[in-house]
Known about the structure:
By secondary structure, the protein is α/β, with parallel strands linked by helices. Helices cover 38% and strands 16% of the residues. It has eleven helices and nine strands. The strands form two sheets. It has a seven-stranded mixed sheet with strand order 1-3-2-4-5-8-9, sandwiched between helices. It has a two-stranded antiparallel sheet with strand order 6-7. It starts with 7 loop residues before the first strand and ends with a helix.
Amino acid sequence: MGTVELHYHAHAGGEPTLLLMHGLTANCRCFDVVAEHLAPTFRVIAPDLRGRGASPKPDEGYRMADHAADILALLDQLGIERTIIGGHSFGGLLSLYLAAKHPERVAAVILIDAAISAASERTRELIRPALARLERSYPSFEAFLELIRAAPYYDGWTWDPAVESYYRADVATEADGSVHPRARPAHIAAAADGVIAEPWREHLAGVTCPVLMLHATGSYGPVGAPPIFTQEQADETRNLLGKCTYIHVPGNHQTMLYGAGAEALGAAIGGWIIEM
C-alpha cells in the first residue's frame, strides 16, 4: 500500500518537536489540552491517522507497517529527520513499532496508557461498543454528544467542555444537521487486527531509545470498574523495555487527556525531556 497525506494539527512551540498519535478510534484533537501544557516550550504535531478524522480513508492499508509509513512520510514532509514520538493507546503501540523498526527516526518514545496486552483477541470484544457507535447516524451533534456524555468511562467525571472540540472533529455534519462518525467500522476493525498480528515482545526487544510510560489507573466504567490496563499489565510492558521511566497520572484511559490528567501529562513529559 502507498502512503496517504495525513491531516494534522500543529501547536506552536520550541524544539524538540513532539509528534503525538491518537488512539484506535480517536482523532488528533484528543491532544489539544495536553498540548496547551506543553506549549510554548515544545512544538506539538498531532496527526489524524489514516481512516480517522480529516485524513484520507482508503479501503486498505491498516496494518502497523502502513500506519508507520504514513508517519514517516509526514516527518519527511515536515523536514524532521529524528524526533520524539508518542501516542495514546493504539498511538503508543504505533510509537513502539516505529522505534523498533525505524530507530534512526525516533529519539525517544512517550507511551500514554498503552500496553502490549492490548494486542490480544480480547481487543475485538472490547471495541465492539465503539464499532456499534461508528455504524450509526445521529439527528444532531447535540444528540451525539448526549450519548457520549452517558458513556460509562465518564461516570463520576466532571464534564470538561474542552473535550467537545475532540468529539466535533470526530463527526461529519450533513445539510440537515445530522452527523455521522468520520471513521468507518471496517477500517477500525482492520487496524485492531493489525495490532493483534504483530509480535510485540520481539518489537519491544528492539526498542533501544528512552521510553516514558504514563499510566492511568482510574476506573474505565462505573466507579469500581477496573482500568483499561492493570498495574500488572503495565508492568509487563515496562519490564520488556530497556530504558523505561514509569509515571502514574490521574484519571482513566479517556479522562487522563483532560483536566488534572492533562496537566500531569504535560508536567511529566516536560520534566522527562529536560532531564533526558
